[in-house]
Amino acid sequence: MKRRGVISWCLVAAGLVLLMVVQPYAAGYGPFRRTIFQELMMQWRNATWQHGALVPFIAGYLLWQRREETARLPEKSSAWGMGLILFGLFLYFAGFRANVFYCGYAGIMTLVAGAAVWLEGKERARRRLFAWLVLGFMWPLPFLEESLGYQMRLMMVKTTGFVLNGVGVESLVAGTALQSMPNVELGRKAGQLFSVGIAAPCSGMRSLFALLVVGVLFSYFRQRVMWRRAVLFSTILPIAIVANMVRILVLIFAAMMFGQQWAIGDAEKEVSTFHELTGIVVFLVALMLLQAVSWLLNRCCDGMRGGRSRTVSRQVSAQVI
């Protein structure tokens, strides 16, 4: 990169620091305005969004990985970048006036994209598009916890209850709670074998957004064709649901074998150690399912390509004969 380009990017970085770290932006529901950086630091302490602290480093690694390929492209400024910069500043100012952090997030992302297009041109910016998209996962979106969290809790309860009843473990669904059915012959009360309340942390929301980051990186590195990457990434949501259901099933069967308190926790909602450790089950199952889908994609697509190649070879051989 030329010296002029380095100076230009240093000025862009200084501007971002001013907008994110220095300038008080919005108050949300608080009594005073916080900077965007302060809001990020507060949200990243939440287990649902703590993956966001790693995303800038991941995006930086992706940029570094393609640095030589990008350097070979012509460096040509584009006026479209200035349009994006102005639009990003508009979004930033609109969020400042409306007291909404989300507009500020969108404004910063647009400013970064505009600076890349304006300083180095569309070709280089296109090479860095994936890193820019990954950077979007750093922004916390707490409103999704409210809108999607309860629906995912209901879905988790219903699907887990369906699976349990399907394998012969009679269960009763009551709202967002799942418990064993009573058995008069054995003198067993409802919920005696297990009683699980699917709270917000168990809905799958905490793991969903982290799995989206894992899934987009897995798709990018495991597949080389864009449409295959898109297909693999589109399976993240159902895979996250299945992986979280597996965790709940593990907790239920552990409660049946070793007791409710050991597997899940006591009546005061103190989570057991086993309950905490099963969180890793979600990511292990998700990675195995992603690998399985990737293998199937390669198997099917490579098989179809091989079949076409053999057909063409036979046709050419027949013409020669």
Automatic annotation (TrEMBL):
One of its GO terms (molecular function) is peptidase activity. Its main location: membrane. It is found in: Cell membrane. GO terms for cellular component: plasma membrane. It comes from the Bacteria. The chain crosses the membrane at residues 48-65, 77-93, 99-119, 162-181, 193-218, 230-257, 277-298. GO terms for biological process: proteolysis. The keyword Transferase does not apply. InterPro entries: EpsH-like, Exo/Archaeosortase_dom, Exosortase. It is a multi-pass membrane protein. Keywords: Cell membrane, Hydrolase, Membrane, Protease, Transmembrane, Transmembrane helix. Pfam families: Exosortase_EpsH. This is Exosortase. The lineage of its organism: Bacteria, Pseudomonadati, Verrucomicrobiota, Verrucomicrobiia, Verrucomicrobiales.
